[in-house]
Specification:
The complex is a heterodimer of chains A (421) and B (64). Chain A has 421 residues and is α+β, with helices and mostly antiparallel strands. Chain A has a single domain, classed as Cytochrome P450 (Cytochrome p450). Chain A is built from 17 helices and 14 strands. In chain A, a hairpin with a 5-residue loop joins strand 5 and strand 6. In chain A, helix 7 packs across helix 9 and helix 13 packs across helix 15. Chain A is globular, with a radius of gyration of 21 Å. Chain B is 22% helix and 12% strand. Chain B contains 2 helices and 2 strands, in the order βααβ. Chain B has a two-stranded antiparallel ribbon with strand order 1-2. The mean pLDDT of chain B is 90. Classes of the chains: A alpha+beta (421), B alpha+beta (64).
């Protein structure tokens, strides 16, 4: 692939507003003021999340016709939605037809056993050793090295779009080019503006790439995630174990390449956006890098890139004083929960000096984000490299001021033009 | 043996209470509230099993 074609690929796949349009959700204006007002009136409101800010109730906004909806805005309510799997489960993903054959859409023992086969490789210890040393450190060096002699750069396109996709695909064992083709296929497969045939064709193309790599690792294992999945054993009913099916392995790859490529991209940008707009905090972090993990957690609290997730009520259940009938869909608003004034003082303020308190940026409960520690390592690696090499990093005043945008359920910055020296 | 829980890591997966019932406590939101608790003598193995099962590695047992 030529450098130019590669750049076009990244520009196209990692444009936050294009992303919003492609998903069918559309670009939404800042929803936080409306969410704060809703939370001040009550923790749970009947209706889909899109209805409260005048957005289209489309599939891209987690809406499927024919269900009763409740949107949940408080920290306690959203936590309960994630941590009471006997009341609220992930059947919502089966309804929407997204990632139905993966840990995202499974529940209970089946979910736990399948997640267990790879959990250890995503725990903090693995993130700060295998992922950092084998994958992330080298990629950060290469990507930052590409522009370190320039005066200015768009960090969204040149670093933040590239690092996560390459981390996950190369961690899994796909080449850089296979990774790009694969993500393009998945995005096209989830483009609900396209015909079902077009989506199916795109999914098949993505699956072919994976099948090829999985079969190669079955022949000849390597030190990568796919080889670990190939070698893994799942407990069977009764006694004994079995290897994962090709479909289960491919499901993991699809989920993690999609989720790990997209979420960390946006959160890297949000973190830089917040720090460059708060110079005093940026300077504190520059001077004392032990503050960086706090800055990353605060960025995830202040502006979680995926601020809404869905759950389904398994049975009639009470949630923060509201009766939720069985079969209803919950829209859990992490964005609003992370700004709940009963948990955080001045919640709208980005403040890395807050006392450490868990937010729901990475969700909670059994489905809590699998890749969060790898994501944090990527953010640590990228920010440390930028601050080490460019202590005078600042917005480029000749370019439009960066802003946060995107759809209601997937948000992050557009271009991030900075001056380096 | 003393339980130490990192508030920035606990994600309320609740595998500690599933794997070591009686050792770990949850707060009203479902997060581990056992920070500072002493493990009852004789139940160290169970406490270790619960700590190991934490998907976030949030639980440390001091006095190991």
């Amino acid at each position: 692939m030529t450098e130019l074609a590669e750049a076009r690929d990244y520009d196209d796949m990692f444009d936050i507003e294009e992303d919003a349009l492609r998903s069918g959700a559309g670009v939404a204006s800042d929803p936080y003021p409306a969410w704060a007002e809703l939370l001040s009136r009550g923790p749970v409101h009947e209706g889909p999340i899109s209805g409260f800010t005048g957005e289209e109730p489309s599939r891209g906004n987690l809406y499927i016709p024919g269900y009763q909806y409740f949107s949940v805005f408080s920290f306690a309510g959203v936590s309960a939605g994630f941590t009471r799997p006997d009341d609220f489960n992930s059947q919502s993903h089966q309804v929407s037809g997204s990632f139905t054959d993966t840990i995202l859409a499974l529940d209970g023992l089946q979910h736990r056993q399948l997640r267990d086969v790879i959990q250890e490789h995503f725990q903090p210890a693995a993130a700060s050793s295998w992922w950092r040393e084998k994958i992330i450190a080298g990629l950060v060096d290469e990507l930052v090295g590409n522009f370190e002699n320039q005066q200015q750069v768009d960090l969204n396109a040149q670093l933040f779009a590239r690092l996560p996709l390459r981390t996950v695909t190369e961690g899994f064992g796909l080449s850089h080019e296979e990774g790009l083709d694969f993500r393009r296929g998945i995005l096209a497969a989830m483009n609900y503006a396209a015909t079902p045939e077009q989506r199916m064709q795109a999914m098949n193309a993505a699956n072919e790439i994976l099948d090829r790599v999985i079969r190669a690792r079955m022949e000849q294992p390597q030190d990568d995630v796919i080889s670990r999945l190939v070698a893994a054993k799942l407990p069977e009913e009764g006694e004994g174990t079995r290897p994962l099916t090709l479909n289960e392995i491919a499901g993991f790859c699809r989920l993690i390449v999609f989720a790990g490529g997209g979420t960390t991209w946006k959160q890297l940008g949000i973190t830089l956006f917040a720090l460059l707009n708060n110079r005093d905090q940026l300077e504190a972090v520059m001077a004392d890098r032990t503050l960086l993990p706090k800055a990353i957690l605060e960025s995830a609290r202040w502006y979680p890139n995926d601020p809404v997730f869905a759950r389904m009520a398994k049975r009639d259940a009470e949630l923060e004083g509201t009766m939720i009938p069985a079969g209803s869909i919950l829209h859990l608003c992490l964005g609003s929960a992370n700004h709940d004034p009963s948990r955080w003082e001045e919640p709208d303020k980005f403040d890395i000096f807050r006392p450490v308190q868990r937010s729901v940026a990475f969700a909670a409960g059994p489905h809590s984000c699998l890749g969060q520690h790898v994501a944090r390592e990527e953010m640590l690696g990228a920010m440390n490299a930028l601050f080490d090499r460019f202590p005078n990093i600042r917005w480029d005043p000749s370019k439009p001021a960066p802003k946060l945008s995107g759809s209601l359920i997937s948000r992050g910055p557009g271009p991030l033009h900075v001056l380096l020296n | 043996m003393k339980i130490s829980v990192r508030a920035d890591l606990c994600c309320a997966a609740q595998l500690c209470t599933k794997n070591a019932p009686g050792i770990y406590r949850l707060d009203e939101l479902g997060y581990n509230a056992s920070d500072g608790d002493e493990v009852p003598p004789g139940q160290e193995a169970e406490a270790r099993r619960g700590a190991r099962s934490c998907p976030e590695g949030a639980i440390n047992l001091e006095g190991e």
